[in-house]
Amino acid sequence: MTTKRSGPQRNGTAAGAIERAKGELERMMDLNPDVMVLVNRAGEMLRVNRSLLALLGLKRFSDVLGRRLGDLFPGAPASFCEELLSGGGGTAELTAALATGERLLRFRAVSARPDADVQVVIVYDVTDQEAATASREREYKREAVQTLMGGLMHRINQPLTVITVKARLLQLALGNRTLDPAELKSGLDDITDLVMQVSRLLERMEKPRDYVTEDYLDGLDVLDLDRSGQEGAGREESRPES
Fold first, then answer.
1. Three-class SS state of 144
2. CATH among 1.10.10.10, 3.30.450.40, 3.30.450.20, 3.40.605.10 for 8-125
3. What is the dihedral of CA 30, 54, 113, 10, to 10 degrees?
4. Are the C-beta atoms of residues 234 and 212 closer than 8 Å to each other?
5. Whole-angstrom Cα distance, residue 24 to residue 217?
6. Are strands 35-40 and 91-98 parallel, antiparallel or unpaired?
7. Can you count the helices (H) and strands (E) in the chain?
8. pTM to 2 decimals?
9. Would you write out the chain's pLDDT as a tens digit for each of its 242 residues?
10. Residues 6+ apart with CB under 8 A from 150
């Protein structure tokens, strides 16, 4: 024989479950190293963890509780809370000048449903992460430029050296009056051909089709200008040997 539960008992069980869930959420907020804030629909803070105080350079919870989240971060637009909390959870990014310095912050709102009375907002300080990403991008660009310039210098220095030597020899011969017109024309033709080689090389590199490198000196890779200028060069290089 089963006993049917009464309405008050069921309500009491549900209320207990809600309280337990609330307690678990609060404990999770307290232990989380990231900033976590419990806010109502207006963006007013109902509960915060110590990570928020550390981020803002504050010591007392009373300095933040009851205030709107956006008011704590200089530079936040008036519609910050509304946009972040609309639809039951949104994201936002903000650069704020805080007591601890200028920080790049990423906000993420989380709720159980779109019309929830309360939401949890998690705040990530991504300043160092973004700075590291920017540093890596600069390093990649520097390496790419170094590889390109190495390839250009490797290929262009050769004809430039010949041009310089040829021009110097022609100057000496003219100074000694030992150069006839035919030799002068031949020397100038050689110089013109070398200049055109350099010109065609630079023209190919205006729109490289691939990025293929070759070993140079002391483990330095330089851009292989010929293969980089050929369509499908990278694909050919990556084919396994038969």
1. helix
2. 3.30.450.20
3. 20
4. yes
5. 62
6. unpaired
7. 7, 7
8. 0.50
9. 444 455 555 556 766 665 666 666 666 666 667 888 899 989 999 999 888 888 888 889 899 999 999 999 988 898 899 889 887 778 888 998 887 788 899 999 988 788 788 899 999 988 877 666 666 777 766 766 666 666 677 678 788 888 888 888 888 888 877 778 888 888 888 889 888 888 877 777 666 555 555 555 555 565 555 555 555 444 434 333 43
10. 216, 220, 221, 222, 223
User: Hunting for tokens 């310039």 — which residue is that?
Assistant: 149
- 180: which 2 tokens? 């006839």
Ramachandran area for residue 101 (φ above 0: left; ψ -120 to 50: alpha; else beta): left
- How long a stretch of residues is the chain? 242
User: How far is Cα 105 from Cα 127, in angstroms, rounded to an integer?
Assistant: 7
Would you kindly state where each structural domain of the chain is located, as residue ranges? 8-125, 136-238
Give the residue carrying structure tokens 């540093």. Answer: 135
